[in-house]
Amino acid sequence: MLRVKYLPTLIVAGVAIAACSSGESALESGVDDDPVVTETPTDTTDTTTDATDSAGADTTAAPTTTLAPLAELPACPTDALDAADGPVEIEFWHSMSNELEPPLVELTEQYNASQDRVRVVLQNQTSYDSTIDRYIAVSPGSRPSLVQLPEYTLRSFSDSGTTVPAAACIESSGFDTSAFVPRTLTAYQYEGIQRGMPFNVSNPVLFYNRRIFEAAGLDPADPPVSLEELRAAAEAIVSTGAAPVGLVLDSGPDSGGGWFLEQWFARAGEPFADNGNGRLGPATEVFFDNELGVELTTFLQDMIDDGLAITIGDNAGGQDDFFKLADANDRGSMTMSTSAELGSVLGALDAGLAGDLTRDDIGVGPMPGPGDVPQVQVGGAALWIVADKSDEEVAASWEYITYLLTAESQARWASATGYVPVRADAVDLEPLASTYANDPRFEVAFTQLNTGADDDTANAPVLGPQREVRVETARAMAAIFDGADPQTALTEAAEASNALIASYNQRN
User: In the chain, what are the domains?
Assistant: First the structure.
């Protein structure tokens, strides 16, 4: 039985990063490449080259950036719009594609129409990968006023000196954060400073086939929460012939190959890295090759070896794990994925893209993990104001951010997408109140977000080369799923990760 220590965790959205070249200051030097401005509604065509889909991680390469440390907290002139001559136009690079883009377009169009001080131009970069790659590639003058960045960039972009910490804008404007879910804020704090403002928050949940549960004699209203319960459910499903596969696993860096491992360590109350997961000071080493890491990975390997689970590789298609639940020949019963996928999953079901699966067939439960307390780490992405812009652009970016983070905007955003609202007061507003009341599946992730402690161990690790570390753990997990010795694979990945961390710390 796995050791259990109860402690919270917060989530991270399933996204990827493509490779970038290293250099003396990759975020400060770049090649001039003026982006093509696309106004709302935006075209979802990718304007970058060799971009990796947000859900399909490239496990062979990851960014290696040398970043300049932030010397001091830049000013945030939030009152600069008062003297502006006409509307101030800002460009916002985001990564909300497919079903996630229309709600952002609608919010932005309504914002633009509601006032005459700011005009926001959306530019869809299609994925977090391509957003980061393009940001690094272009010259500082070609960067946007505002950019959406995933949680694993917290340290690297904090160190870069290319953004205005949100703390400066909060202080200068007197912005009230008291209604925010505390974890959504601490998720984007580094060195005690609020760096970005949380916007699209998600966490990992369990998707399962309710019909298969019923056929196996399981209660579809009571999905497994602990790892022991997860195995028991898979055993019941396979032994009864309800389905040939109990659990569908993947080894993608931002899901089963990296992100989930971080989640399970937090849930077990154990640090993933030293120095408070890199939140009390720069992390120097990772701990995922310890006894807990071996126990967790051995547990999963045993499920595969015992015919209770299968692996689909790195989930390059983004929803390969979900569509395995609709496979007529080798149907899976359960899979773990980001809660942000719920809206897209239901849309695919409504469109008849998942075989005989219907909207009512899919259940959503907490992410199973060590113990039975559904705690998760905060993930997804935050809004970052870009430095080296005019005072008017900085102020305009902040005003737009505050609009997106009102309780009313968050209620509409969360209801339309499946993301978790960053404010507790949003859940009482329409349309979110009705969404949660009519479809409790949408509320699972919000409940997880509010379970457990808000401390350094429970919060996601902050590593300079965090993406690279996830690539290393993904390689280890893929090898373990293929039969490699867990201790050996994890030790090799930890040694490689520690070397990456040492190199980053030396440069920064």
Answer: 80-202+380-410 (3.40.190.10), 204-376+462-507 (3.40.190.10)
